[in-house]
Amino acid sequence: AMATATATTACLLAVWSLVAAGLFGTGLARSSVAPAAVGKEQREFDYFALALQWPGTICSSTRHCCAVNGCCRSEALHTFTIHGLWPDYDDGTWPSCCRHTSFDMDKLTPLKPALDKYWPSLYCSSSSTCFSGRGPFWAHEWEKHGTCSAPVVHEELQYFTAAIDLYLKYNVTEMLATGDILVSNGKEYALSDVIDTIKHAFGGSPQIICKKGSVEELRLCFTKDLKE
Ligand SMILES: *[C@@H]1O[C@H](CO)[C@@H](O)[C@H](O)[C@H]1NC(C)=O
């Protein structure tokens, strides 16, 4: 469904196609849609999606632990965490790896506590970066998506700051609570109620990705200027 979605309805269609398919079962992985060609000049993106992950769903398949994996903390994560801020095209595809710029952790020193808290990796293995490298989860997000965020976001610190600012401003836990939806592992709510509540509180439909009947990811769409 996503591949054929047009214009500003991209997120909305993805959600409703899940509903039509009987709500759950099939995860709507982004990888099911071919990304725009890598390494070529790519046109400017159309809108941003703030992708949030639900650790309970992802961590339920953690098999071994390591220091970088947020799933392995002594205090379990009980809140949505950031996956990334993604520039997208209206046609369901997205630009990726737009510039040759390597990730530099030192530039993010001022944000390190916030990144650890709100944007942890939920895996042990390092992530692929553009141009066949590997690195921390943040390197993957910056190189693959962040470099395509121009002309709105130009550099690394600005990219991570923008994502964290949105995350703090649009607290989905609070939005869901306005509809008496208290997010936690094992609680079940009708998907339509989740969508309606976010729609009401946020002003736009979320895109929801499920895995084996549980919410794995929730995405909010923003216009290019980072307004909802
Ligand atoms: C979001 O709101 C919940 C409920 O009020 C709160 O516990 C949580 O700390 C907030 N999250 C962030 C990142 O501010």
Automatic annotation (TrEMBL):
**Keyword rRNA-binding set for record:** no
- State the name under which the record lists this protein: Uncharacterized protein
In the record, which residues are listed under signal peptide? 1-29
Q: Which GO terms describe its cellular component?
A: extracellular region
Matching PANTHER family: RIBONUCLEASE T2
What does UniProt list as catalytic? H83, E141, H145
Could you tell me which Gene3D superfamilies the record lists for this protein? Answer: Ribonuclease T2-like
UniProt similarity note: Belongs to the RNase T2 family.
Q: What is a single molecular function from GO for this protein? A: ribonuclease T2 activity
- Record carries keyword Lipid biosynthesis: no
What Pfam families does this protein map onto?
A: Ribonuclease_T2
Q: Which UniProt keywords apply?
A: Disulfide bond, Endonuclease, Hydrolase, Lyase, Nuclease, Signal
Q: Which GO terms describe its biological process?
A: RNA catabolic process
> What's the superkingdom here?
Eukaryota
